[in-house]
Amino acid sequence: MSKKVTIIGSGFSGLSAACYLAKQGCEVTVLEKHNQVGGRARKFEQDGFTYDMGPSWYWMPDVFDKFFADFGKKVSDYYTLERLSPSYRIVYKDGPLDIPSNTDDLYAMFENIEKGSADKLRKFLKEAEYKYNIGMNDLVYKPGLSLMEFMNLRFFKGIFKLDVFNSIASHIRKSFTNPKLIQLLEFPVLFLGALPKNTPALYSLMNYSDMIGGTWYPKGGMVSVVNGMHQLALELGVKFVLNADVSKINVNNNKASEIIYADSHKGFDALVSSADYNFTEQKLLDEQYRNYSVKYWETRKLAPSSLIFYIGVNKKLPNLLHHTLFFDEDFAKHSDEIYTDPKWPTNPLLYLSCTSQTDSHVAPKGCENLMVLIPIAPNLKDNQKINDSYFDMVISRIEKQIGVSFRDNIVLRRDYATSDFIKDYNSFKGNAYGLANTLSQTAILKPTLINKKVKNLFYTGQLTVPGPGVPPCLISGKLVAEQVLKYLNKN
Q1: HEC states along the chain?
Q2: How far apart are CA 274 and CA 262, in angstroms?
Q3: Which CATH architecture best describes the domain 4-39+61-76+220-300+435-490?
Q4: Hey, where are the domains in the chain?
Q5: Would you say residue 1 has pLDDT above 70?
Q6: 157/307: higher pLDDT
Q7: Is omega for the bond preceding 86 within 30 degrees of 0, making it cis?
Q8: pTM for the whole structure
Q9: How far apart are CA 49 and CA 63, in angstroms?
Q10: Distance CA 269, CA 250 (A)
Q11: Partners of 450 in the β-ladder
């Protein structure tokens, strides 16, 4: 008789874990709080406009390829990819800069901005490629349960080349002095993790992923990836229960024995939570069964939250790309207002996504769907007055950049802020991206995949290994599935 595994949450990590466990013959049931799968990667549809509610960047395509290949499938079996060219646009104070997808054009752009920087970028990306290859194999695809995982000759020979003990801020500044180039190279860690000065230089592997791996778009949006994984899971026999808002995990004889939601769910051999780790521990489990204390969680350094606007415009807009980053305000000040002195930002950086520039199916004919994101400190209290003030600021800055007024053409607006992350995802302090990528929160120093007090309870997702982002969550699902299978094979 096959072993039964229940998974709480159908985000990327939950879907990934479900597929890997079902492949090995487990009878898998996924409980999802909402009326659709995807977790933070749900879609929002209204009046013919379609939006990815969460992730919108498709980087590290090799991780997605590897995931589907593990099941004898290809990405193209489930969705269609298009490489974006230019990759994205950055708006600086003195105007926009389009980031080429072609590496020769990229080197030429660097050289034009800072003499001698093309050769430095080649060297920088060569080192980043090494970090990507070694880091992925010897750090990211490890469960983070013991130092022994890293006891191999290749890792030790390369430990200093991985730049784990140097900051990415100092690493970048060794090669480049132009503020535009520095900001371009620092943005992946600023938006997704921590201050560059507190982030290991190992994470220049993200620059390799960006500039060499490329920026891609799955037709239909990131929800197409969710749908592809959901379809694969169904093909493997996974069962999904929607509108299952879990309120309690009961434990009997040091084993999770029952899950309480509108109904109750029993009879599983192992339980995986891909819900928010802190919520699972602090709200679903009694205190004696938690891995970590309230004090532990309060001392964790979190990646940002976000204030997001989903906007529908009833006319086509000029001078837009699929992805645009607004670095037209003080980069350092906004960073400090996220990480050092948390407060609502004075003049924030912005990220603008307009998928209708690439995909005609995500907005009504002649219309545009805009998604604007402002990174903010977690745990800020939002309200409509605050949202309105930032919305006015956002529209004014976009209008100034594209040279066209469209405020009176807005036919749809939805706000999404810290309180929504808490309400919809039980997100710890309303964070959007998990834990900050600091050295003290890397690998074995992240919250563990395994509950040490409840034998059959496991965790996956952005608050555990390997960390925030869609590709890491795919990997997290695989890692937790391996631990569940080890447990099941012994019991």
Answers
A1: CCCEEEEECCCHHHHHHHHHHHHCCCEEEEECCCCCCCHHHCEEEECCEEEECCCCCECCHHHHHHHHHCCCCCHHHCCCEEECCCCEEEEECCEEEEECCCHHHHHHHHHHHCCCHHHHHHHHHHHHHHHHHHHHHHHHCCCCCCHHHHCCHHHHHHCCCCCCCCEHHHHHHCCCCCHHHHHHHHHHHHHHCCCHHHCEHHHHHHHHHHHHHCCEEECCCCHHHHHHHHHHHHHCCCEEECCCCCCEEEEECCEEEEEECCCEEECCCEEEECCCHHHHHHHHCCHHHCCCCHHHHHCCCECCEEEEEEEEECCCCCCCCCEEEECCCCHHHHHHHHHCCCCCCCCCCEEEECHHHCCHHHCCCCCEEEEEEEEECCCCCCCHHHHHHHHHHHHHHHHHHHCCCCHHHEEEEEEECHHHHHHHHCCHHHCCCCECCCHHHCHHHCCCCECCCCCCEEECCCCCCCCCCHHHHHHHHHHHHHHHHHHHHHC
A2: 19
A3: 3-Layer(bba) Sandwich (3.50)
A4: 4-39+61-76+220-300+435-490, 103-213
A5: no
A6: 307
A7: yes
A8: 0.97
A9: 29
A10: 14
A11: 458
CATH 1.10.405 is held by the domain 103-213: yes
Token pair 């009176």 is at which residue? Answer: 408
pLDDT, one tens digit per residue, over 344-361 is: 999 999 999 999 999 999
Q: For 148, phi and psi rounded to 5 degrees? A: -65, -20
User: How far is it, in rounded angstroms, from Cα 392 to Cα 374?
Assistant: 13
Q: Provide the 10 A C-beta neighbour count for residue 242.
A: 13
Q: What is the pLDDT of residue 425?
A: 98
